[in-house]
Amino acid sequence: MDREKYVHGYSEREAERLHDQAGTLADLLHHDTVYPPGSTVLEAGCGVGAQTIIISRNSPGALITSIDISEESLKQAASLVSGAGARNVTFQAADVYDLPFEAESFDHVFCCFLLEHLPEPARALSALRKVLRKGGSLTVIEGDHGSCFFHPDSKDARLAIKCLIDSQAQLGGNALIGRELYPLIREAGFADVRVSPRMVYVDSSRPDLVEGFTRNTFTAMVAGSMDKAAALGLATREQLERGVRDLYRTAEGDGTFCYTFFKGVAIK
Q1: What is the mean pLDDT of the chain?
Q2: Among 115, 206, 213, 218, which residue's Cβ finds the most Cβ atoms within 10 Å?
Q3: What secondary structure letter does DSSP report for 28?
Q4: How far apart are CA 164 and CA 224, in angstroms?
Q5: How does DSSP assign 145-174, residue by residue?
Q6: Is 191 helix (H, G, I), strand (E, B) or coil?
Q7: Where are the domains of the chain?
């Protein structure tokens, strides 16, 4: 993946958002991802290590190789994981389309929030399938911005979300990829494909999710995409700022917010 085509950018604030997201959603997305001791796991697109630290903690006996195309992100991930005391992760710079591993090198493959940023997600899945041993598992987790709804409703907020979706599409990605996981994984040649929706529902009775998801994950992501959307001419800066303001409004006492992630698992 071309660094310039990562719609969210590589700022320090974006790294913080990714960690907020991972911590908030750890139980929802990862409670059923556990790898046996001694098994080998390839994590594709580890970024700053926000998911890496969770899967390493869930499977302390597994041997995890985490790859990313960004050397800077790998440095941050290695520092995070080392600081947490994890000793079962090795980091390596690699392109998911051109993996530097022998065929059937890994027992399991894991990727989270990677495919949405790739212009050729099916090609990436095919490359990952090649390095997976027969009978090994694939786990893929993606969001779908089209699954978002909230109260109070706001046309400006909906426009800001649409601008993020359109920005990502213009950069070669797909912010609606969650709904496509089942056919993508099947077409890549995997068997026993199962996709489960993981819905996040937030209201003021769940203050951890109000802060961790509505404010610090989703709305922060939309806010971080404003410069790109404005530069592409998708909306005015004023429209985007109103939209972000209205998304923050849904985090108040009478607001609600809902979003769905999709988790796909399959076997080679």
Answers
A1: 92
A2: 115
A3: H
A4: 9
A5: GGG-EEES--HHHHHHHHHHHHHHHHTT--
A6: strand
A7: 3-267
What pLDDT score was predicted for residue 8? 46
pTM above 0.85, yes or no: yes
3-267 folds as: Rossmann fold (3.40.50)
Which H/E stretch holds residue 221?
helix 220-224
Indicate the DSSP class of residue 70.
-
d(CA 143, CA 262) in angstroms, rounded, equals: 6
The DSSP secondary structure of 91-135, one letter per residue, reads EEE-BTTB--S-TT-EEEEEEES-GGG-S-HHHHHHHHHHTEEEE
Confidence of residue 25 (pLDDT cuts 50, 70, 90): confident
With beta carbons less than 8 A apart as the criterion, state whether 107 and 40 touch: yes
Contact assessment for residue 22 and residue 54, using Cβ atoms and an 8 Å cutoff: yes
| Long-range pairs for 9-13: beta carbons < 8 A, 24 or more residues apart | 9/224, 9/228, 10/70, 10/72, 10/73, 11/224, 13/220, 13/224
CA dihedral sign of residues 101, 175, 138, 192: negative
Q: How far is CA 223 from CA 27, 169, 183, 219, 229, in A?
A: 26, 17, 31, 6, 10
Count of residues making up the chain: 268
